[in-house]
Amino acid sequence: MASSGTAACPYPAWYQLFFLFIEPVSTVVGAYYAHLQPNTYLALTHAPSAPPITGGTKIVLSQLANLYLAFALNEALVLRSSYDIRVWRTLLLGLLIADFGHLYSVSPLGPSIYWEFQRWNAIDWGNIGFVYVGAATRTAFLLGVGIKARVTKQKK
Question: Alpha-carbon torsion 137, 45, 100, 33, what sign?
């Protein structure tokens, strides 16, 4: 199956809901805050070290917002363009690798940031908790959890 065309998506509802709607929309919300609410974004990330919003800081946050937007568009549009298991696995593997990079990016906050969820603020839930859900969902998909055998077998 090279293209989705008018065919129904063959993957379980959770994968469709998460990869085609929840994650792209959530990522656009991150882009919104990085670009249009930079003070809030930086204060929630780590208030004690949040720099003033100067030209350079605004540029970097706008670039981050653009990357979030590219992430959201790639996931939402590429996965809608094809239900080919190879396309989904390739894109989701790349995003899983990015998940680990994203989790590593908060390591300066100390190791407890990864498990002391009762101390998390809104951005921590996005940067850590939501990434855990995304990584777990991608891992499940890549391992074939809930994927019917007919979907995984492709004609050469």
Answer: positive
Q: Using a CB cutoff of 8 Å and minimum separation of 24, what contacts does 2-6 make?
A: 2/82, 2/84, 3/81, 3/82, 3/83, 3/84, 4/80, 4/81, 4/82, 4/83
The beta strands (E) that lie in the chain are given as none
Asked if 15 and 136 touch (Cβ cutoff 8 Å), the reply is no
| pLDDT band at residue 7 under the 50/70/90 scheme | confident
Which of the 8 DSSP states describes residue 55? Answer: H
pTM of the model: 0.88
Residue matched to tokens 């239900």: 83
* Each residue's pLDDT tens digit, 29-40: 999 999 999 999
